[in-house]
Automatic annotation (TrEMBL):
EC number: 2.7.7.7
Protein name: DNA polymerase IV
Family statement drawn from the similarity comment of this UniProt entry: Belongs to the DNA polymerase type-Y family.
Cell compartments where the protein resides: Cytoplasm
CDD domains: PolY_Pol_IV_kappa
Active-site residues (renumbered): 96
Subunit field text: Monomer.
Binding site for Mg(2+): 95
Amino acid sequence: MDAFYASVEQRDFPEYRGKPLVVGGKPDSRGVVSTASYEARQYGIRSAMPSSKAYQLCPTAIFVYPRFDAYTAVSKSLREIFSRYTDLIEPLSLDEAYLDVTEDKLGIGSALDIAQSIKDAIKNELNLTASAGVSINKFVAKVASDMNKPDGLTFIGPSKIEAFMEKLPVEKFFGVGKVTSAKMKAMQINIGADLKKLTEAQLIAQFGKSGRFYYQIVRGIDDRPVRANREAKSVGAEDTLSEDTNEDAVMHDLLKQISETVAKRLEKHQLSGKTVTLKIKFADFKLITRSRSFATPISKAAVIYAEAIKLLEEAAIGTTQVRLLGITLSRFYDDVEIEKPESNQLEFEF
């Protein structure tokens, strides 16, 4: 979807249309930008940017808090549209999914025509726009979907994939973040053609397991199937402190709130996990994480909170000022279907 949260807001509130709109924290808060409308992006406003910075870039922008119930309802409608064309749907988020249309339920006969038909249905029924990428595998389709936003449709056929990947800047490779991109550029790897010069062994030596993935995708090789009803790999929540602090009482109070949020989300999806991860972002935006695994799955807020406190203590932040805290639970039964008896769960009085 194109600028999803902002587009839903502009659809539902005509007074926002054609104006720079920021969905996220208010400019006088310590929140961050969740999504910016295309009008706001012209000023350099981007997702994950501090709201205060967004305000500096565009003081006339409209700032609104997210309405997740509205976005979830639209996401459900999107899924209903997708299901008319195929049963193989792998959601990535509320506004993005992979579709394997090999089955072609409506007998349309062309993946490109199917994509256009889906885009038309979204526009006609939901009054929103989407961009689609069409190709023979997930990686290339994902890259293609980002190429001509908004309201784009990009097809990259089998004969053009390798040439396309060779010209693609490494920072445009799906899965290559800022750190990896910087490391690649320091190695004079700027585009796919540069990446292609390295052997698989060299890439693994430099980037670990991801090196094998980079070796394959730069050649257009991606055999990952579209997994319908893909299970979540992690459930988490995070929040920004009202002001930078290193006071235990303030951080403990926020961690308690976050633990309760995570526990509610786990309960909603009937999940329990074995690994708790604490995320700490400092005032200078440096980020660290600390994790610990349990022998049996956990899901109770009190247990999550107690472990988060331990991880915070082990991080030994001292006098360093903290800006944001987050908690994530992962390793949901190691993908093994098991019972979730309450007696297996470590409990603390709280």
